Amino acid sequence: MNGSNPTQQLVKGTAILATAAFLSKLLGVVYKIPYQNITGNYGFYVYEQVYPIYMILLTLSTAGVPIAISKLVAERLAVGDIPGARKVFKVSAITLMLTGLFSFTLLYTAGAPVLAFLMGDPDLVLPIRSVSFALLVVPVMASIRGYFQGHQNMMPTAVSQVVEQVVRVTTILVLSSWFIYHHYDEYYAGAGAVFGAFTGALAALIVMLLYWRSNTLAQRRHEQTARGEGGDKNVQAAPLTTSKGHGSGWAHQAETSYVNLSFRQILRRVAAYALPISLGALVLPLFQLVDNFTIPNLLSWTGWASKEAFNLRGVYARGWPLVQFAAFFATALALALVPSISEAKAKRQHQQISKRTEFALKLTFIIGLASAIGLAILAKPINIMFYVTPEGTVTMAILAFVVIFSTLGITSGAILQGMGYVTLPARHLLIGVGVKFIFNLILLPFLDIKGAALASVVGYMVAALLNLWAIYHIIPVRLFKKHILLPPVYAVCVMGICVSLTMVGLEYGLDSVKLHERLLYALVTLSAVLVGVVVYGLSLLRFEAISRTELSLIPKVNRLIPVLETLKILKKEDPEQTEKGASS
Fold it and tell me: How far apart are CA 235 and CA 574, in angstroms?
């Protein structure tokens, strides 16, 4: 579609999608804090109970479809089969429209009462029906995204993702505020909030259709220009040719245009790519679904009143946005790791694979460990700063340790995918979900939501360790050596002491100052985080948890190397070692 080479298109496309994904995820996490402030713990419970159901249905119907369509469209365009590429899109769009209509009908009619009954709260029927409307729009939007991606045009997908989240978050905050202000209950507020899935998807679809119209007009102008120059009235539908002298696999496939394939044949090819991806993406929402079905029911069965059980479920949900936010680093690293390791594997650069794997896992552990310990120590001030009351502080502190294993799981999963083991991380996550379910059943009756938090830590730990064990047997890496694990632990201990002293000192020091409690704890949190970042960074260098060569690989941070060497915080390396590190 443009004159740039395939590598430039790939890098540019990846960068565009990565930026859009980061902004979308950031918006998708941050809005939960003001939403909880508007509706309270009970309103938070309603939203958290309903939205994962929509995510699972959405994942089943669309998760792998844009990738499958983009792959098949790109293959058709590569061999000149433009009508075949369009037929792939038409078949996919029609099928997704029908599956979306079926999913909506099922969820709105029989599904909503059944799911509400299984979750132990019949009042959830209204918000479940409210979120079901999104299933009418999202599948069609997914097929258009896949078609544009097949043309190596990532901008429509990126723009539509950001627009979708902005409109969705705006709808959530506006409608929930309106319902609460007009004295409707939390179920109406929750129904208004989850309706944002529909308004956001509709806005994204409009963006995609505008891009589609612009692209169609540009194609028509191009065809008219080509006809005027060459006099060929059938420029677009150039005949497919294959050279018998070139025995490549794709050339053989190009002998038959997809136009000649039946609806069912094309659908089977799309499904062959889409279903494995959808099933793999389905695993992560299952973690949350386990809590949705077990927490309210088990708490009620062990003597808690229904309203109190539902309120506790909302308190439990407080920690998850912070855990998800802390995982952004690992998500960004994963986006870069998959193509990087795939490239090294294709070139058979085994030493490069080992080095990149070790560095990625080491960096993930260093950041995940500090994030977890920092969040655990500062759970009380963070809880009050964001959510007004200290309810669920211990639960939030336990959930903080999910960060270590979720980040390691994301990074190690990306490494395995880069090595070609695409389904292995999903299988390990599924095992983690099973472990989480069993521990929920065991711990919830004795520890209430603290038991659910501990079960989440164990579930993610099992999934991450299975990934690491697989890497250990696939790639020659040093994962569990003392010189790799102990220095970050020493550094985080120093950080933890300094953060704790800062927190306690400011709490007592500012106690006499007349400040609003949230403002007080905001100052405590931000000051302690700043101290923690500085102390942890210096401690990592002092304990040699990260070397000069490794530091030089981190963008922006590598500019500090001369200053750190001048201050004798960072040891200078021998020129020979530096040269070896650079060449590797």
Answer: 63
Question: What Å distances lie between residue 251 and 19, 244, 267, 270, 417, CA to CA?
Answer: 36, 9, 22, 20, 28
Place of tokens 């000069």: 548
How far is C-alpha 318 from the geometric centre of its chain's CA atoms?
Answer: 18
Structure tokens at 476: 């020659």
Question: Which 3 state secondary structure label does DSSP give 256?
Answer: coil
Angle 364-566-488 (CA atoms, 0-180°, nearest 5)?
A: 25
The first and second tokens of residue 552, run together, are: 């030089």
Are 12 and 155 spatial neighbours (Cβ–Cβ below 8 Å)? no
* 3-state class percentages of the chain: helix first, strand second, coil last, to nearest 5: 85, 0, 15
Query: Tens digits of per-residue pLDDT, 376-410?
Result: 999 999 999 999 999 999 999 999 999 999 989 88
Length of the chain measured in residues? 584
334 class by beta-carbon count within 10 Å (0-12 exposed, 13-18 middle, 19+ buried):
buried
- Left (φ > 0), alpha (ψ -120 to 50) or beta: where does 475 sit? beta
Give Cα separations from 362 to 341, 353, 369, 487, 492 (angstroms). 16, 14, 10, 11, 14
Tokens describing residue 218: 């540009």
**Is the Cβ–Cβ distance between 542 and 534 less than 8 Å?**
no
* Number of continuous H segments (helices) and E segments (strands) in the chain: 26, 0
Evaluate whether 409 touches 364 at the Cβ level (below 8 Å).
no
Could you report the per-residue pLDDT of 289-312, keeping only the tens digit for each?
899 999 999 999 988 999 999 999
Q: How far, in Å, CA of 278 to CA of 129, rounded?
A: 23
- CA nearest 195: which of 43, 36, 47? 47
Q: Give which of 87, 93, 125 is closest to 109, Cα–Cα.
A: 125
Radius of gyration, alpha carbons of the chain: 26
Checking phi first, is residue 120 left (phi over 0); if not, alpha (psi -120 to 50) or beta?
left
Q: What is the Cα–Cα distance from 52 to 287, expressed in whole angstroms? A: 10
| DSSP conformation letters of 97-140 | HHHHHHHHHHIIIIIHHHHHHHTT-GGGHHHHHHHHGGGGTHHH
CA distance 195 to 174: 11
* 3-state class (DSSP) for residue 4: coil
Angstrom distance (rounded) from CA 550 to CA 54:
42
Nearest to 16 by CA among 157, 134, 198: 157
Which amino acid does the sequence have at 119?
A: M
Query: Any idea of the CA torsion for 150, 154, 160, 165, to the nearest 10 degrees?
Result: 110
The pLDDT assigned to 584 comes to 43
Q: What confidence tens digit (pLDDT) does each residue in 151-176 have?
A: 777 788 888 888 988 999 999 999 99
Give the chain's residues under pLDDT 50: 1-4, 6-7, 10, 233-255, 577-584
Residue 116 neighbours by CB under 8 Å, 6+ apart: 122, 123, 124, 125, 128
Query: What residue type is assigned to position 363 of the chain?
Result: L
Mean of the per-residue pLDDT values for the chain?
Answer: 82
Amino acid at 435: V
- What's the CA gap between 220 and 455, in Å, rounded? 58
185 phi/psi in degrees, rounded to 5 = -80, 180
